[in-house]
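Budget justification aside, the reviewers requested a transparent look at the raw inputs and outputs of the sequence design task funded under Objective 1. We therefore reproduce one unedited record. The lines immediately below are the C-alpha cells for a 81-residue chain.
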C-alpha cells in the first residue's frame, strides 16, 4: 500500500512546480477577466489596460518615455515594458 502523498513505488508523484512570482523576482501573479493567469512584471502594471479610458502607453512605460532612473531605486533592477 502506498503511503499518503507517495505513489505505488514510494516516490512523490511527478508534478510541475512553477517558480513562485513575488517582489524579489519583480513579478506578481495576475488573474485576468478572461480567466487566464500569468506572472506580470511590476513595471508592466503600467502597460495594462485597466479600463476603457486607460492608456497602455502612459508616462510610466517605455512608449511614454520613462527611463530606468525615473523608477524608485528598488524597482530599477526590474525589466522595463
Amino acid at each position: 500500500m502506498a503511503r499518503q502523498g507517495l505513489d505505488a513505488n514510494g516516490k512523490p508523484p511527478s508534478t510541475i512546480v512553477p517558480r513562485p512570482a513575488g517582489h524579489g523576482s519583480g513579478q506578481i501573479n495576475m488573474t485576468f477577466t478572461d480567466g487566464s493567469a500569468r506572472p506580470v512584471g511590476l513595471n508592466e502594471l503600467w502597460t495594462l489596460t485597466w479600463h476603457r479610458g486607460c492608456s497602455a502607453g502612459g508616462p510610466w512605460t517605455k512608449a511614454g518615455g520613462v527611463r530606468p532612473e525615473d523608477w524608485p531605486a528598488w524597482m530599477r533592477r526590474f525589466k522595463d515594458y
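The CA atoms of residues 47 and 56 lie 4 Å apart. The chain has no helices and two strands. Computational costs for records of this kind are itemized in the attached budget.
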